[in-house]
Every structure is written in structure tokens, then in C-alpha cells.
Amino acid sequence: MSRLTTATTALVAGALLLSGCGTTETSGTGDNRSNVATGQDGFQDVRELSERLGTDAAPGEFPRVVDNLVANGEVGPTEIPAKPERVIVLDTGELDNVLSLGIEPVGIAHPADAGIAPDYLEVGDAVDLGAYDALDLEQIKNLEPDLILGTTLRIDDDGLKESLQEIAPTVLAPRPGVLWKENFLLNADALGEEEQARELLDAYEERAAEVGDAIVEANGGEVPTVSMLRFMAGRTRLYGNDSFIGVLLQDVGLKRPEAEDIDDLALEISPEEITLAEGDWVLWGTYGEADATEQAAVVDGPLWDRVPAVADDGLVREIPDETWYLGLGVTGAEHVLDDLTEIADSLR
């Protein structure tokens, strides 16, 4: 049962992920252009799953039942007896969500190769629970949570799901990124903050449209195509539509070049394929330490000058990875809109 109202039903159409730091699977493109990164099994079914999640409770009413993923691909009810006050979050998207709603979590899990939270978020006295793939259940139990929020992408073991439910009501969405707006509404359903969440999303969508108009005006009336390039340890990606940033660019109304205009997470490329970044703009970020990636081999390499935006003296800019790729929530999205506004201003 979806909690998307008429005002936000458009979010479903716009929301077509994975943060990129979790495990992925790839499928060959069949045209020798490297691989399309699609994430875990069932990636293409997440939008259908998300429409079945949420609550029928009146805004702010408790106790309530929230339909969520109680096992991989299985929707079931979680009863929440009272408005949660001690919340644990198991990834960056949930962290952004609860903080956006004015709630400080008591415990935070995160990727193994990252700190407790990205710099753009203030987490107060929250306990660092370590990596979400190596959770200490006793530590979680000792925090006495009354709600645990996460995704089945991160908590992919059904036995672990059951163990978390035994500690506290646990509400799991399918995956981060591609469903970031639906996940925000689901988390808000669990917290009894659904009205505030809708207001924040409405404000974001209105601002995204305004930023898009400003970009077109500053760009001489033309809608630019945007290549989203990301360097990571062991892989280099051009991000597609089924990602956090892909959804956001659709909301802003910006176009994608052919290689990235795909209903998948990303296209994984080699340094020799960098000219597939064919956008009028090339915006690139780096996850983790640059020396662990192919950033230097690409940006300082012999083919960089043949990337269309570089060759044509177009807009080529490094962007902060922690918001553009890891933000995964409405506060992160607002930071991206800030950056896009600055870009528009620089074009005037």
C-alpha cells in the first residue's frame, strides 16, 4: 500500500539504486562497451515492491502497522506500538532521512570503508555501529532502540532481518538511491512524520524545477546533456537514470547522453572508454582515496582531451561525491541543487 499522495505520485515516475559502495552485479551490454551495473538480483522489481509499502494509519497515529520487506522480496507487516524515540539507522540514506525530519538517531551503521556519517550531516552523540555488513547485535540491543531503519540491499540476510525484528520494530525498504524519495516516505511512515516528509519533498521538487529553468536560461535557452562520471576503487562508472543522481537530474529536467540514458544504475567503463562521457557537461566525483582509483589515469590520461566537453571547452567540473552520489536523501539532494545553482550562476 503506497503512501504516495496525488501531490507526490509523480515521484514514482521520476524515481528510477545503489550508492555504489555496496556489492553489484553486472550484465554485458553486448556491444563491447563494458558492463551495465544493475545491482543485486531483483533490481528491476524494486519500483513495483515500493508501491506496496507504507501504512494506512492516520498521520501521527500510533500504534500503526507499516508494510515493508520482512524478507528478501517478501512484503509483510511491522507493528510500531508508539512514536519512536530511539532510532537506529543502517545506511546513509536512512541517516539523511531521519535527520531531515529533525530526529537524531542513537546508532548509525555505515559502509566499511567510510566514517560514521558524511561531512554534510551532523549526527550528535550517535553511537558508531560500524559496518552494516558486520553488525554487532548485542551492541544494537544495548542501545534499546524502538525502531530500526534500513534496506534489504544492506541487510540481505533473512536471518539477520529476523534478529533485528526481535530487538525492535524494523522497517526495511528495497534499496537506496533509485527509490530515495519513496524510502523517505516509508521511513516517515514508520516515524509518524509523513506530513513533514511530504512537505519537504514538495519543496524539493518545486526548487528542482526552478533550478532547471535557471540552468536553461543561463545556457542560452538550451537544455544541456550531463555526463555523471564517478571514480571508485576497482571501477569507473557513468551513472544512469536508475540512481540517486539520475533521479535528481530528471527532476531538474536535464538531459543525459546516449550511453547514460539507460534504466540501469550505471555503465562501467575502462579508462580507454572515457570518450563515452559525451555530455555537454561532465561532472565527476571520486569515492574514497583518489590514489585507489583510476582518476589520475583518466583525467591526466591521453584520452581526456578527446572527451567532447573537454575538447569543446565545455563545462567540466569535479563535484563532491558525498552529496552527489552518497547523499541518498532530501538533505543531500538540496546540497546538489545548491551546486547546480552555482553552476547556473557561473554560466551567466
TrEMBL record:
Its main location: other. CDD domains: FhuD (cd01146). InterPro entries: ABC_transptr_periplasmic_BD (IPR002491), Bact_iron-sidero_bind (IPR051313). Keywords: Coiled coil, Signal, Transport. PROSITE patterns: FE_B12_PBP (PS50983), PROKAR_LIPOPROTEIN (PS51257). Belongs to the bacterial solute-binding protein 8 family. PANTHER family: IRON III DICITRATE-BINDING PERIPLASMIC PROTEIN, IRON(III) DICITRATE-BINDING PERIPLASMIC PROTEIN. This is Iron-siderophore ABC transporter substrate-binding protein. It comes from Nocardiopsis alba. The lineage of its organism: Bacteria, Bacillati, Actinomycetota, Actinomycetes, Streptosporangiales.
